[in-house]
Automatic annotation (TrEMBL), chains A, B:
Taxonomic superkingdom: Bacteria
Name the record gives this protein: Cupin
Compositionally biased spans, kind Basic and acidic residues: 113-132
PROSITE patterns to which the protein is assigned, alphabetical: CNMP_BINDING_3 (PS50042)
Classification via PANTHER family: 16.7 KDA PROTEIN IN WHIE LOCUS
InterPro entries according to UniProt: cNMP-bd_dom, Cupin_2, PKS_Associated_Protein, RmlC-like_jellyroll, RmlC_Cupin_sf
Residue ranges of the region described as Disordered: 88-132
UniProt domain Cyclic nucleotide-binding: residue ranges: 13-84
């Protein structure tokens, strides 16, 4: 089988879809996905019990509210070029005034976690990531 | 233990060291590292038998020569914002006229693979990644 020798450009990939909070899988390595998403508005509180989640802000701003074991909330503000890892088992809620992110997580990881709080708003896609 | 709520900025992290082909670990997630490196000059032919390797070009240009099972060589040219995965078991040799990259790979993965060809030049660091 011929090797794939075509890189994917993230700017072009982001321009190929409009939906927010609806990640596309741009690459797979081992049993992990590299996903990209547009971000705008409030996501939902959710938790991944079994995996950390890596974020890189490609453009704009992306905030991650975190809730510790004692129920205290803190918000991490990420700007372009910032990276952050949400540890497994940590409740978190993303929000954004507009931007785009790259995520690294195990294939099959659901955007809304093992469980989430409240109703899912229309602009939040509960998915394990879409093909490009 | 208090949660880490400080993101790391990749531009600042890259500005904090000068060495080429000497990756710094900017984040860990599960048993994977997120590493960044400056790139310039020729790396060495090497192979990772047990893991894929993910590359994102942050700045400049980064080329990856690949050798297939039949010994045929192809070069993938990556510019800023391009992503590419070298499949496990594929012999490859990076080179660059200058730039910087982000990599995902299992913690412990050696920059020069399970084996490499020829002498290691002085500007290539054989390492599993340095702390920031």
């Amino acid at each position: 089988m011929a090797m794939n020798t075509e890189p994917i450009n993230l700017t072009k990939a982001l321009a190929s879809f409009d939906e927010v909070y609806s990640p596309r899988i741009v690459a797979r390595m081992n049993d992990y996905d590299v996903r990209i998403a547009h971000t705008e508005g409030e996501h939902v509180w959710h938790v991944h019990q079994d995996t950390d989640e890596f974020f890189l802000v490609l453009d704009g701003r992306f905030d991650i509210a975190l809730r510790d074991a004692g129920g205290r909330e803190t918000t991490v503000t990420l700007n372009q070029g910032d990276v952050y890892v949400v540890p497994k088992g940590t409740e978190h809620k993303p929000s954004s005034p507009g931007g785009s992110i790259l995520m690294f997580e195990p294939s099959g990881t659901l955007t809304t976690g093992d469980h989430h709080e409240g109703e899912l708003p229309d602009h939040v896609d509960s998915t394990t990531g879409h093909e490009m």
